[in-house]
């Protein structure tokens, strides 16, 4: 697997070559989201605000929010609502509370209808205020004997003693008497300020002053996730899963791309690489049955991970590559031999390359009328699973022609074994690559146009065969 799977160009290639499949699966995901919205009925949420006057710390506000959703409050709200089949335990999952800015506790209730959501939030807010006031009254009653009132009486007694001490001090204007009276006045002022702060921070008055800031507004829209959100989420989820699935499949791809890997799988050397010009309308694989028609309809009958063809030279440069490959084959086999050109079935690029190579073999000048010293080629397409190569007839070797990145090591090893079972020695391999041809001014037929006619299953092509 190459690094192309992590590039943006690879995702663009998926979108361009698998857009039909992506559209179909995105629609399926949208339908799945719609079905989910049908199974889960819509919910509505209303909110009521409770004001807590006075000074409150953040942790105290959080405590009040927890009290608002406690079973003591929610159970009392359920008793006042008297909804059929709905208990306090059921409402606990539908009620939430959070502390907002400005000493406000926001209580939210969720129900099947806007009216019920409004009623639920209002009742819970009312029960929360009632419960908090009850707690404040209980704490005030328990602190009557030894609480702030006793402290106030003690402060008043201390003020009287301070006054007595000030009167009993030396009425003269000595330094000591002035200092004593000054300290006593400071003590009196400190005690008065402390009592004033104590009155302002009285927790009983704070809790008793909680108030509901008006009834909850009736909701006009569904609470998330809405039906539209579920449909969009389903479509997006299926789209992303399809793209990720393609990337994972490409990452797990084990098709061979380099010449050393191909040579090792076949157990023979690679004689060279040839170019095949890409066709404007490439033929699609033919198949019968509903499965094949479905694959053609979704556009998954062809591979998407094949890189775009690169630019190549003109017709003359491409033919030069074929002549050089044939020359290497001829130098490797000096005697006149017939060779079987094996092309994996379904490899259109390799089939066209093999036909062109056979055409070059037929047009190569021969030192004698019987083509002595020049291998004669016969092209056959071989199924990959299971591979089956024709038995040896007059051929004394096999040349494998294939395209890079199309076959795994196991498939190529199977072709090599099938050649050995048929009595053919693999004398080499030729790798074909798809390129984007430059337009040529020549109007005459090229050798590529005749190449498809030279390749056929089990038919002899090239030379005088």
Record the SSE blueprint.
Layout (H helix, E strand, L loop, with lengths): L7 H10 L1 H21 L4 E8 L6 H11 L2 H11 L6 H5 L2 E6 L3 E8 L2 H29 L5 H21 L6 H26 L2 H6 L2 E2 L14 H25 L7 H8 L3 E8 L12 H9 L11 E2 L3 H18 L5 E7 L3 H16 L12 E7 L12 E9 L5 H13 L4 E11 L10 H8 L11
Parallel strand pairs: 5-10, 6-10, 7-8, 7-9, 9-10
Antiparallel strand pairs: 1-3, 1-4, 2-3
Helix pairs in contact: 2-10, 4-6, 7-8, 11-15, 13-14, 14-16
InterPro entries: Bact_polysacc_biosynth/exp, LPS_length_determ_N
Protein name: Wzz/FepE/Etk N-terminal domain-containing protein
Keywords: Cell membrane, Membrane, Transmembrane, Transmembrane helix
Count of individual beta strands: 10
Structural class: alpha/beta
Rg from Cα: 45 Å
Report strand %: 5-15%
Biggest sheet descriptor: 6 strands, parallel
Estimate percent helicity. Answer: 40-55%
Mean pLDDT metric: 79
Tally of individual helices: 16
Write down the overall geometry: elongated
Uncertain runs are 367-372, 442-465
- Terminal CA distance reads 40 Å
User: Quaternary arrangement of the chains shown?
Assistant: single chain
Would you list the SSEs in sequence order as H and E?
HHEHHHEEHHHHEHHEHEHEHEEHEH
């Amino acid at each position: 697997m190459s690094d192309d799977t992590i590039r943006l160009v690879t995702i663009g290639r998926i979108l361009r070559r698998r857009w039909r499949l992506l559209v179909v699966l995105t629609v399926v995901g949208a339908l799945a989201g719609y079905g989910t919205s049908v199974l889960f009925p819509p919910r509505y949420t209303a909110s009521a605000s409770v004001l807590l006057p006075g000074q409150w710390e953040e942790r105290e506000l959080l405590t009040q929010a927890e009290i608002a959703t406690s079973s003591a409050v929610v159970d009392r709200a359920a008793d006042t609502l008297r909804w059929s089949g709905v208990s306090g335990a059921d409402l606990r999952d539908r009620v939430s509370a959070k502390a907002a800015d400005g000493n406000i506790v926001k209580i939210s209730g969720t129900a099947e209808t806007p009216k019920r959501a409004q009623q639920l939030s209002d009742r819970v807010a009312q029960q929360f205020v009632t419960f908090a006031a009850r707690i404040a009254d209980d704490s005030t009653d328990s602190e009557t004997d030894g609480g702030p009132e006793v402290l106030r009486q003690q402060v008043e007694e201390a003020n009287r003693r301070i006054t007595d001490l000030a009167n009993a001090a030396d009425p003269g204007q000595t330094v000591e008497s002035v200092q004593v009276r000054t300290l006593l006045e400071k003590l009196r002022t400190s005690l008065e300020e402390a009592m004033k702060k104590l009155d302002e921070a009285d927790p009983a008055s704070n809790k008793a002053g909680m108030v509901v800031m008006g009834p909850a507004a009736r909701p006009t829209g569904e609470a998330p996730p809405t039906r539209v959100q579920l449909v969009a989420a389903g479509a997006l989820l299926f789209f992303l899963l399809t793209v990720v699935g393609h990337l994972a499949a490409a990452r797990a791809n084990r098709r061979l791309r380099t010449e050393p890997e191909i040579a090792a799988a076949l157990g023979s050397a690679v004689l060279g690489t040839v170019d095949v010009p890409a066709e404007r309308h490439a033929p699609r694989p033919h198949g019968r049955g509903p499965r094949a028609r479905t694959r053609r309809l979704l556009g998954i009958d062809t591979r998407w991970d094949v890189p775009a063809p690169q630019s190549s030279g003109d017709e003359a440069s491409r033919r030069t590559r074929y002549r050089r490959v044939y020359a290497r084959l001829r130098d490797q086999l000096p005697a006149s031999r017939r060779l079987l050109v094996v092309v994996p079935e379904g490899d259109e690029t390799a089939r066209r390359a093999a036909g062109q190579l056979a055409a070059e073999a037929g047009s190569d000048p021969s030192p004698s009328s019987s083509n002595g010293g020049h291998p004669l080629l016969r092209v056959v397409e071989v199924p990959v699973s299971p591979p089956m190569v024709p038995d040896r007839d007059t051929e004394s070797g096999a040349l494998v022609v294939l395209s890079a990145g199309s076959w795994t090591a196991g498939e190529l090893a199977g072709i090599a074994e099938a050649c050995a079972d048929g009595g053919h020695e693999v004398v080499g391999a030729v790798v074909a690559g798809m390129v984007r041809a430059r337009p040529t001014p020549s109007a005459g037929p090229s050798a590529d146009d005749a190449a498809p006619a030279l390749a056929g299953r089990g038919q002899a092509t090239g030379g005088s065969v």
